[in-house]
Amino acid sequence: MSIWEYANPKKFIATTTPLVPWLLWGAIAILTVGLIWGFFFTPDDVRQGSTVKIFYLHVPSAMMAINVWIMMLIASLVWLVRRHHVSALAAKAAAPIGIVMTLIALFTGAVWGQPMWGTWWAWDPRLTSFLILFLFYLGYTALWAAIEDPDTAADLTSVLCIVGSVFAVLSRYAVNFWNQGLHQPASLSLDKEENVADVFWYPALVCIAGFVLLFVALVLMRTASEIRLRRMRALEARMRS
Amino acid sequence: MIALLKRDLTLAVRAGGGFGLGLAFFLIVIVLVPFGVGPEAEVLARIAPGMLWVAALLAALLSLDRIFALDFEDGSLPLLATSPLPLEGVALMKGVAHWVTTGLPLTIAAPLLGFLLNLSPSAYLWLLGSLALGTPALSMIGTFGAAVTVGLKRGGLLMSLLVLPLYVPTLIFGSEAVRRGAGGFDATIPMLMVAGITLGCFALLPFAAAAALRVNLR
């Protein structure tokens, strides 16, 4: 019994299909609890008033935007090393979710920044690196869309994902060098000293858990539908010949 | 490897077009800038470092799709791939040839165009230096982008979408060096960063480009 058994598309679909509704409803329930807790049962911040509450959407989506890319990187490496098609398709399935997460983070950040900093957008290092990350996602999905042969597409996007990861990290630090920012430092790290107060911390953790579950459920669903799409293509090709 | 470099350079010079086109594009973009932002000397002097770098970057981008496309179409790329020279070496030499035909002329022409934008006198040395150190990285990143998109019919637009985000770090450090030079500060740190990016690109990207070429030639 090893994890690679699930690289078999049939086994993958058979295992994940019953899991998806649980994950999806779990995500919805946890997000509902976390967001209601965050929105209605936490005090307003001393300086930021009630605008602080967008935190519960902004932080999880921003974390997921980065984590989705890391997941795509791992899936790409698995594809390049072990040639499991499910892995390549999972990376493909994750990219649009990453785009949406990046957009949510940028949008909620803009909505939050307007009353706090007096501007929707500033060329702050974090904002700029997110914009660059968004461009990387766009390039990645565009490359998937442009190539017809699925194996070629999987190979090239995997190579692009690896090179892109190196450059994304490089850009992250280059942007720091280029401009000092308005954005506050990390508010959720494992180092408890610099965290936000516990009142905000617990609902935020719940929301992060909800976002992670939502992402897992969506990736499993999208991967399964990519597998089915490829089967349909194969059947069509066979019927034509 | 040297023979391949000579062949590529000869082709670029004799075929015409490719050699001077990037340079002419660079000139035109720089001439267009004052029309866009107005002719005030102080404004131009302030934006000159960034504009020179962005224009050089776009000019380098313009000729990228020629790196592999012509060889791919006439079938010499598969021949190169089966030659004793490893594909990594081919990719490296293609990058070097692209730099000699576009990056080097851009670097030499940039100080002249700096006059047009009223660049401050203390910045010329840094402009020359940062472009000389930075454009090789642009060529090598572009070689990778060209290798990824070589099999596509209309790869040019997609390639700019792939390559431009990868140019961000080089652009940041390169133009920062010129900006510090223009302000009369010491620009050693950004220059070192540009040199580091270039060396890193030359060390690693030939492998990525070769991997992409192998996939496209399969």
Q: What's this model, at a glance?
A:
By secondary structure, chain A is mainly α.
Characteristics:
heterodimer, A: 241 residues, mainly alpha, 6 helices, B: 218 residues, 84% helix
Structure description:
The complex is a heterodimer of chains A (241) and B (218). With 241 residues, chain A is mainly α. Chain A has one domain. Chain A has helices at 9-40, 55-82, 85-117, 125-146, 150-178, 198-240. In chain A, helix 4 (125-146) runs antiparallel to helix 5. Chain B is an all-alpha fold. Chain B has one domain. In chain B, helix 3 packs antiparallel against helix 6, helix 7 crosses helix 8 and helix 7 (124-149) packs parallel to helix 10. The longest helix of chain B has 30 residues, at 87-116. Chain B is elongated and about 55 Å long. Classes of the chains: A mainly alpha (241), B mainly alpha (218). Chain A binds chain B through residues 132, 135-136, 138-139, 142-143, 146-147, 152, 155-156, 159-160, 162-164, 166-167, 170-171, 174-175, 177-178, and chain B through 144, 148-149, 151-152, 155, 158, 161-162, 164-166, 168-169, 172-173, 176, 190, 193, 197, 204-205, 208, 211-212, 215-216, 218.
